[in-house]
Amino acid sequence: MKKSFLLRACACACVSLLALATIGTATAQVKKGKSRLMKTEHFMAGLIKPHSTDLKKGLDAGPATDEAWHELAVHAALLNEGSYTLMEDGRCPDTVWADAASKTLRDGSEAVLKAIDAKDIAAAKKAFGEMSKSCKACHDKHKKKD
Ligand code: HEC
User: Fold this and answer.
1) Which of 67, 130, 139, 142 has its CA 20 to 30 A from that of 27?
2) Residue 28 covered by a domain
3) Does residue 9 carry a pLDDT above 60?
4) In this predicted model, what pLDDT tens digit does every residue of 35-88 receive, in sequence order?
5) 26-59 b/e with 16+ CB inside 10 Å = b?
6) Relative to the CA of 134, which ligand 1 atom is closest?
7) Are 130 and 108 in contact (CB under 8 A)?
8) Residue 101 domain flag
């Protein structure tokens, strides 16, 4: 009797500790990876947001020269690369994050890049719209409201 109580109490404590550890890690993962220095906030402010904003501006303006098309390709390629970084270093806490980064952002930016390579502005804008759904999907769950 006593032994089984102790066993159960211990099992319960272990489960609680595990749950606490998981919650702690999940929070840390969202804000920062496990070992690298960059915070998610840095990545958003320094790469995701500027490349997304400049890509949208460039698509709206309509690229007139090869150089302008090339600039748009750079933005789309970096956003695509960003979808990999968001999945690295233990940063991804759940399937909402994984879907937003490794599907919506990755596939969307790939479609934008392909449309840019084909100089198809309408297709690029449409793909940009799809790609941008990743921002809201991930933020709704993982970006803390101020
Ligand atoms: C897979 C998840 C994920 C995706 C996809 C994502 N974000 Fe974020 N973003 C976050 C998280 C988490 C934060 C909050 C970081 C923090 O405050 O620690 C954030 C914060 C931001 C911020 C605020 C940065 C700051 O300086 O505090 C901006 C701007 C931003 N995201 C833009 C975007 C845009 C634009 C997209 C889409 C093109 C996007 N994000 C896609 C997870 C994501």
Assistant:
1) 130
2) no
3) no
4) 999 999 999 999 999 999 999 999 999 999 999 999 999 999 999 999 999 999
5) eeebbebbeeeeeebeebbeebbeebbeebeebb
6) 5
7) yes
8) yes
